[in-house]
Design a protein that fits this description.
Blueprint lengths: L1 H4 L26 H20 L6 H21 L3 H24 L9
Helix pairs in contact: 2-3, 2-4, 3-4
Length: 114
């Protein structure tokens, strides 16, 4: 109920916040470490997902998936905005699928260590 009696501040805003104009909530400050982790997780996720579709590329998919899961988990831990969390979750999902399919096709050391 407090929101209904709060005076409007800013240009046409009833909540007192500056409108962002985008779907993802950003705080207007740069976050280079989080952005790099988001991009690395996304690239590793795509690599793991695509290579998991081929049985003989299980080493690449399982290792890329494992590293993507670890970087994505750390990125989630230190993320600041919704945009970063969204990108990290997409990369984490692709990394996990690639990792699990790579493990099913032969694992991290399948065929290398006998």
């Amino acid at each position: 109920m407090a929101q209904t009696i709060r005076p409007a501040t800013g240009s046409g805003s009833t909540t007192g916040r500056r409108p962002t104009g985008s779907l993802f909530a950003t705080d207007g400050r740069p976050h280079p470490v989080q952005d790099v982790l988001m991009v690395v997780t996304g690239v590793l996720g795509i690599l793991a997902f695509v290579t998991a579709m081929f049985h003989h590329l299980h080493l690449i998919s399982s290792w890329a998936g494992l590293v993507g899961i670890l970087t994505g988990a750390y990125g989630q831990y230190i993320s600041k905005t919704t945009w970063e969390r969204f990108g990290l979750i997409m990369g984490l999902g692709a990394s996990a699928v690639g990792f699990y399919l790579g493990m099913a096709h032969g694992g991290l050391f399948g065929g290398v260590i006998t």
